Amino acid sequence: MAYRTVAGSQTYAFADLKDLMAKATPLRSGDMLAGVAAATAEENVAARMCLADVPLRAFLNEALVPYEEDEVTRLIIDSHDALAFRTLSHMTVGDFRDFLLSGVATSEVLAAIAPGVTPEMAAAVSKLMRNQDLIAVAKKCRVVTRFRNTIGLPGTMAVRLQPNHPTDDPAGVTASILDGLLYGCGDAVIGINPASDSVPVLSELLKLIDGIIQRFEIPTQACVLTHVTTSTEVINRGVPVDLVFQSVAGTQKANASFGIDLATLKEGREAALSLKRGTLGDNVMYFETGQGSALSANAHYGVDQQTLEARAYAVCRPFKPLLVNTVVGFIGPEYLYDGKQIIRAGLEDHFCGKLMGVPLGCDVCYTNHAEADQDDMDTLMTLLGAAGVTYIMGIPGSDDVMLNYQSTSFHDQLYLRQVLGLKRAPEFEAWLQRMGITEPDGSLRKQHGIHPLLAASPELAA
Amino acid sequence: MSDAATDGDRPADSVSEPAVIEDSWRRLAGVTPARIALGRAGTGMPTREVLRFALAHAQARDAVHLPFESARMAGDIAALGFETLELASAAPARDAYLRRPDLGRRLSEESRALLASRAGAPVDVALVVADGLSSTAIHAQAVPFLTAFKARIAEAGWSVGPVCIASQARVALGDEVGEALRASACVVLIGERPGLSSPDSLGLYLTFAPRAGRSDAERNCISNVRGEGLSHELAAFKLAWLLKEALARQLTGVSLKDESDLLLVGGRPPPARIG
């Protein structure tokens, strides 16, 4: 169905809903690369004006990616909760924005409508929202998950301790884990990106992290971020696996380029559940996403990258993940060109995920060929902290020496906690105090001598 | 006034403690290149670490944006005894190169015509030296690497076309170059995406039967060629091993695994034997 609007002295026509959505998206390099972006600033606003008048129901009737060709579209449509949608069923996209900002949309109401919100609806309304709207509404959303601790409670922010090493050296990995724990990080997960994809190496890394967690009775979980089928194989060999990881995208074809489909994810989740390793809950999945992944796999169907990103959260949703994060600036400047585009995308992703009921964190990051720097990351992490982000990454000194990009550091989370008063997952916060790592107010205690945790390092124990 | 000035010169007890809290586990930093045990000033990094990081980022940024000295590289490579040819991709400038990867994967019209005029008899291998995302890497590594690889070419007796020095180029540009030069295989030397601790890392991509439209799964890659990473000699040996296998088995990519390690003696490559 074609859409049409008058803005200024011009009449603008849009071929269909996906054309309208793409042209209404705040400008970014990936949509320009795909050739779907608005040609002028006026056309961009005209598209937003037109989109504001589109009924939310339209997204249930007009698929952006064909239903017959794509299992993600089928998942979205077939599992849509009509009862939860009833409150929204009479609204246009513009009404939806006003409703979300209003006092009527309390945390309870937002949780109740979440199963009725499709990713396309979330993406559409985000295109009409300024950064402050994305922050204000996300802040009201509550998504709480549990494995060995409780993540997502109001006033908290968790951190993934990311102890990557260029050769997966056990001593090097251990050193980064200890440094992170002593800086009060690791409640989201101690999760490593391995350099290797060999099963023996991955098994050793899992045993190493599990060994530290067991030895010091840390209320957190371990993850080695490898392909879901590899995790399943490792589980079958009897290796301790807490969380099963997978990168996911918003179309079946893009997921196929990752070597997965919905059935593969289901198998991975069932394998993890069979181990019954969670003590407080059974949220056993960890997903990563990022705008541009579908275009990069040539699997975007002419849909803008932000809408496809929201569809990735629809892929995550039925698997009840503990953690989902958008690796926002990793993909490079051909998708998100500079600090402004990365900041906007991070806020959009977080908002869409939370609105859909997904525990969204953010890898606040950039590569060295993007027009971005530490100041941009300070801005984005502060805004996300204000928006109630579920978790961020913790990487020694912001420098990932294996993946060659910059993310948030152990120090950065201390800064956010101090400035915004954010606490850790309560079970982890209590453990840090018991271990003499933090003060009762959550700030770091000054360490003297050799802390008992350091006994885990053969180098220091020697 | 003078009293106040005197007081100001002498720190009060409350501020006489060092502002930077050092970490008691600094010894751990010896076992990883990761930036651990940095200490802290309040919740922030100490000044020395902020500046150390800023310098590393500046070097990585410069590696991306430093203009590629194509003519100088052509001269230096010609001095090694190679025929050379300077080419450019369809990306007119760095900004367009970064935004439009597709432009960096194909030749400009002028370069396409120039290359066509130089194509002669079929050759075993086409060599492309591409700036990629780090001209710093090419400036530093291309000549020493080609010096080492020249000995391997002589040892195997391969015919090579002109070494093509390509500006604003991505890996896949080698497909069009290799095809035009009627090469059985193409080797692209390219500046890798710079990391904070590795702004000058060279990547080597080998593609059998180069044709426009080849996928990355059809290539073999040798990464991290630089002083602190894989040495030029070892990289040249590995590449020669892969090239020999590729020409014999008529393929590159996922089904060609690098087993050259089996031939190393004490971790070092055997010297090239030149007839």
Structure summary, number of beta strands of chain A: 14
Main sheet strand line-up of chain A: 7-6-5-12
* Count of runs of 4 or more consecutive helical residues of chain A: 22
For the sheet with most strands of chain B, the description reads: 6 strands, mixed
Might you state the CATH topology name of the largest domain in chain B?
Answer: Rossmann fold
Mean pLDDT of chain B: 91
- CATH topology of the largest domain in chain A: the name is TIM Barrel
CATH architecture of the largest domain in chain B: 3-Layer(aba) Sandwich
Mean pLDDT across all amino acids of chain A: 96
The level 1 CATH classification of the largest domain in chain A is: Alpha Beta
Q: Helicity range of the residues of chain B?
A: 25-40%
Q: What would CATH call the class of the largest domain in chain B?
A: Alpha Beta
CATH architecture verdict of the largest domain in chain A:
Alpha-Beta Barrel
Query: What is the CATH homology-level superfamily of the largest domain in chain B?
Result: Ethanolamine ammonia-lyase light chain (EutC)
- How many discrete domains of chain A? 2
Counting helices, strands and paired strands, the structural category of chain A is: alpha/beta
The side-by-side strand order for the widest beta sheet of chain B comes to: 3-5-4-6-7-8
Note the run of SSEs of chain B as H and E.
Answer: HEEHHEHHHEHEHEEEH
Low-confidence stretches of chain A: none
The tally of domains of chain B stands at: 2
Largest Cβ-defined interface: A-B, 49 and 43 residues
Structure description:
In chain A, 45% of the residues lie in helices and 11% in strands. With 462 residues, chain A is of the alpha/beta class. Chain A has 2 domains: 1-53, Ribosomal Protein L24e, Chain: T (Roll), CATH 2.30.170; 145-434, TIM Barrel, CATH 3.20.20.70. In chain A, the strands form 5 sheets. Chain A has a 4-stranded parallel β-sheet, covered by helices on one side. In chain A, helix 9 (119-127) crosses helix 18 (339-355). The model of chain A has no long low-confidence stretch (mean pLDDT 96). Chain B is α/β, with parallel strands linked by helices and 275 residues long. In chain B, strand 4, helix 7 and strand 5 form a beta-alpha-beta unit. Chain B has 2 domains: 18-63, no CATH class; 69-263, Rossmann fold, CATH 3.40.50.11240. The N and C termini of chain B lie far apart (88 Å). Chain B has a 6-stranded mixed β-sheet, sandwiched between helices. Chain B has a two-stranded antiparallel ribbon with strand order 1-2. Chain B contains 9 helices and 8 strands. In chain B, helix 7 crosses helix 9. At the A-B interface, helix 2, helix 11, strand 14 and helix 20 of A face helix 2 of B.
